[in-house]
Amino acid sequence: MSTSPDILEALRRLETNLYTRLETKIDSKIDDFRLEINGRFDAIEVRLERLEQEYQMIVVGLNRVEETLRGLVDDRARARAELADLKSRLAALDARVHEIEARLTED
Predict the structure, then answer these.
(1) What integer pLDDT is reported at residue 107 of this predicted model?
(2) pTM for the full model?
């Protein structure tokens, strides 16, 4: 028959064995979890990098659109000024034509 110290020693070994097995399983689960989380962070980082690149391309594109619009606004202002000049010149020509017609009808 086993004595009390033998039983206690057996229980201690069983406890140590259980502790070691649990620690190993927990460490394995934590390592798996850590790998999964790192994989997810890597995927997020890749997506963020792609978004950053797309953002930069959008900024460059918007800058080009703004430059084009500035050019169009300048062209429009220049066209309006030229149109106003043409209108005044046409009015002057029209006045001269009326003046010439008036002289011709007097004679």
Answers:
(1) 66
(2) 0.55
